[in-house]
Amino acid sequence: MKEAMQEKVAFHATFEELDAAITEEHHIAWKAEVERWEDNPNDTSVSNLFEAKSVAIMQAGACLKLAQLEAKELERGADVSLHPEVSPSIFIGLGLDLEEEQQRVARFMKGLGNHIMDTQKGNLLHQRNGLNRKIESWQMMQVLYMPVVHGMLSTSISPYFNSGIENAEDLRLLLPSAIRNHPCHDHLQLYEWELHLAQAHDALEELRQCLWICSSLLTYKKDWAAKLIRLAYEQVKLVNTAHFESLESSGMFTSIVTIPNPFYAEIMQDSLSLVEQDIFGAIVDLL
Question: What pTM does this model have?
Answer without folding.
Answer: 0.59
